[in-house]
Amino acid sequence: MADTKGDKTVFRSLGLGGFYGGGAEGMVDVKDGKILRVRPFRFDYKYDRKSIRTWKFEKNGKTLEPTWKSMPSPFSLAYKKRVYSPNRIKYPLIRVDWDPNGERNPQNRGKSKYRRISWDEVTTIIANEIKRIHAKYGVNAILMQGDGHGECKTINTPHGQPGILLDHMGGFTLQVRNADSWEGWYWGAKHVWGQGVQGMYWPAHNIVKDSTEHSEMVLFWGCDPETTPWGFTGQFCSSLMYFWKDIGIKQVYICPDLNYGAAIHADKWIPVLPNTDAALQLAIAYLWIAEGTYDKEYVETHVTGFDKFSDYVMGKDDGVPKTPEWASTKCGVPEWTIKALAREFARKVTSIAHYFGGGYIRGPWSHEPARLEVCLLGMQGLGKPGVHQHQLSYFGMPRMEGLTGTSFWNPEIMERLALPVLSSVANWQESVLPKTLVHKALKSEEPLKFMGTGAIEASVAAQFKEHEFPLPTKDGARIRMIWTDTPCRTTCWNGGNETEEALRSPEVECILAQHPWLENDCLFSDIILPANTHMEVEDIVTNIRQGGQFADVMLCHKAVEPVGESKSDFEIVLEIAKKLGYEQQVSEGATTEEIQKKVFEYMNLDKLTTWEDFKEKGYYLYSAAEDWESDPAGFSRFAENPEKSPLGTPSRKLEFYSERLAKHFPDDKERPPSPQWIEKSEMHDERLSSPRTKDYPLLLMSNHGRWRVHSQCDDITWTREAPTMKVTGHDGYKYEPIWIHTSEAEKRGIKNGDIIKIFNERGIVLGGAYVTERLRPGVAYIDHGARIDPIIPGKVDRGGAINTISPDGVTSKNAVGQATSGYLVEVGRVTAQEWEEWRRENPAAFERKYDSDAGLRFDAWVVKEGVK
Ligand SMILES: Nc1nc2c(c(=O)[nH]1)N[C@H]1C(S)=C(S)[C@@H](COP(=O)(O)OP(=O)(O)OC[C@H]3O[C@@H](n4cnc5c(=O)[nH]c(N)nc54)[C@H](O)[C@@H]3O)O[C@H]1N2
Ligand SMILES: Nc1nc2c(c(=O)[nH]1)N[C@H]1C(S)=C(S)[C@@H](COP(=O)(O)OP(=O)(O)OC[C@H]3O[C@@H](n4cnc5c(=O)[nH]c(N)nc54)[C@H](O)[C@@H]3O)O[C@H]1N2
Ligand SMILES: [Mo]
């Protein structure tokens, strides 16, 4: 165990992807028991550079190699601000008007404050609640929300620890993580190419190398390589983009905003309206078919169902040819631009780059543009040199020696150390609820039926399995208690306001949250337990997310003592287990070093080095595999010989028409067997053709924050100074920026810096106007993840939590993914009368303790701040 008092330097994985698969390595200097600074990691700190084999890309006499210094993002380097945030939960809390033996006042969730309670008292209350709920309703009456992104930790895995205890006690209802980042690929692309864990191609070694050598053009379609690689792995992707520019690869950005990548790398920006990409893609296919400029030979040998696809594109089915003129009215791109794009795409060797795919992969009907992209790539010879889909520098980098595909989703580590992660992968709990349906399950009187759960690793077949909630068996139970370690359902997922309302249901007798910071769903809980951050625990992390430079496994020695009375997520569960007589089962009696050693073995490091050497150096640095250059790039083998290297679809080819979808969902008009443009459905009415545009004429784009990772890092004082992070209102409050084009602002009398509102029938969210021409007209743009600060819970939010007004529905009828971007809204000035009304309705909301530099404070929600 490291010395926890003296000055020292420890290692950390600073990416915020969560779990054991880290990225963005860093070094933390500790002085006098406090974090002094966080700085980039030196990969050669304990290794001789000559002893490590590195990869190298070469083109036109230029070379790209990994740099020996890591490149963490700004929020990673500022992480000490998170550890010492004024928002940290310092001790256990209980809602002032929640009495387990009397009135529970569920209607006050989101309104009432909290008081301090001791660990001993609170764990007794929790143990009694669990026993009572189990006896009265059965084990499935407890919903475990334990999966999402977060700090990279293994032993202290940020999510799912409660599942270990509840599993020993007989089970629970599992909130299944849906395909989140990949919705469209998972629910759509998988039906065309049958591949990939999540529906994007994976593992994808050497795609980046192959594009470097062969692509003439890359379309950054819903992609910002200067922003989202930051979240998990840091800024190396930026170097790659500069290199691609240097070697003459043309970079075209297709996105509603001139995003940060486009602003510095784009040769051309094509501003499309949010979630209308399917129209643009169909018009490209139309032009290729009309002009005969697609790869006919490839289509002949590698594709099934092309005729049916082509009939729809050319309008033989519905009498509507999907011409550039047709598309232009829907996607806002002028028809001449569509034609130029289609022709250049056909003429040049082209790949499409994503980090994950942006808003159109997470909007209503996102399976359609996802499927269409695979069809377009298929029409230009997907897998041929330089023709790929990229998941930029994430999965597409060279293979490392000793790492395999399963090193990433290491089943052994998952089983022992992150059991509930496995749960979302393999669906081992019977009573399951997709994350996207939780609010419906809490509200609906009727049992819910849904197809598939969206579990990220699930096979295509899983999409055809019907589930029912509550279980239609004797074990079926509605939700009476929620235990969450992922308290951002309201701010990160669909139907936020409906969720807030559902959390006030009297049927839910107890809501327990464990979290480092007092925010979001914590405010709707009855009991809140203080979890600590990765700086406060001893751990081991496998940095094998292929962020670009190196891969490594590192020991993460404890940097500082826990803040306040906080405990690790694991210790919290253990404390509760003790009160229930399950201590032994939960802890399994292993010491920290024993677990670290096990991870070392699971990663097969015993074959590459010794435990002693690893312990002495503190990390193991992988070399590139000796034969890394021999890996086939992406679909290249399929392209070369589809018979010998077939796909995972029933026909073994690219299916432009899916017989499987036709068979299972013959009546599904939202996800028909061939990809289409969907104008409207029972679930969603979010197109510019809708009569709703009379009141809500703008399409909302909602990206991943440059300065945050979802709901994480909203409180960092250093980044909050950036005008694209927060806009300071005239009242001194720092509002979430709402980007709007100059012409749209003028129409509404909005000036840069004004406090404005973004709204639809589902509610109102306040923000600060960011008037710009870096966004096309017809669009309002706000990132998701700002902390909720309810003025009227379920109706008006001051914090800028945009998902409170996102659709409460899912991707489409048979696809329970999120629909959180690309929907109709309006933007307007906040009137004095509105302020007055809100103040009258909830004066307390305007009196909350607030720190302009860091935002909402812990004591805003706590009565009688304690001594600590
Ligand atoms: N509008 C809009 N909404 C979106 C998207 C979009 O594009 N637009 N994208 C979607 C996508 S792809 C995703 S992945 C989701 C976000 O996905 P989530 O994974 O739900 O969000 P995060 O905020 O990253 O993390 C989850 C929670 O874990 C907490 N946490 C972090 N570390 C720890 C820890 O060690 N212990 C405990 N107990 N808690 C911890 C965080 O503070 C946060 O409350 O958002 C989705 N929502
Ligand atoms: N800094 C930071 N990094 C992150 C995260 C974070 O929250 N912050 N989150 C992590 C996670 S979990 C994920 S899933 C990934 C997400 O990675 P991405 O999917 O790449 O991220 P997004 O910000 O959703 O979208 C990228 C870009 O798509 C464009 N875009 C948005 N809507 C549309 C549309 O309708 N059509 C088109 N053509 N373009 C559109 C915008 O220009 C946007 O900048 O990022 C990861 N990394
Ligand atoms: Mo994601």
Automatic annotation (TrEMBL):
Source domain of life: Bacteria
SUPFAM superfamilies per the UniProt record, alphabetical: ADC-like, Formate dehydrogenase/DMSO reductase, domains 1-3
Domain Molybdopterin oxidoreductase span(s) in chain numbering: 88-579
Location of region: Disordered: 665-686
Keywords, comma-separated and alphabetical: Metal-binding, Molybdenum, Oxidoreductase
Coiled-coil spans in chain: none
Keyword Zinc-finger on entry: no
Cofactor: Mo-bis(molybdopterin guanine dinucleotide)
Pyrogallol hydroxytransferase large subunit-like N-terminal domain location: 28-80
Span of domain Molybdopterin dinucleotide-binding: 698-811
Record bears the keyword Membrane: no
Gene3D superfamilies: 2.20.25.340, 2.40.40.20, 3.40.50.740, Dimethylsulfoxide Reductase, domain 2
InterPro entries: AhtL-like_N, Asp_de-COase-like_dom_sf, MoPterin_dinucl-bd_dom, Mopterin_OxRdtase, Mopterin_OxRdtase_prok_CS, Prok_Mopterin_Oxidored
Family: Belongs to the prokaryotic molybdopterin-containing oxidoreductase family.
Name this polypeptide is given: Molybdopterin-dependent oxidoreductase
Classification lineage: Bacteria, Pseudomonadati, Thermodesulfobacteriota, Desulfuromonadia, Geobacterales
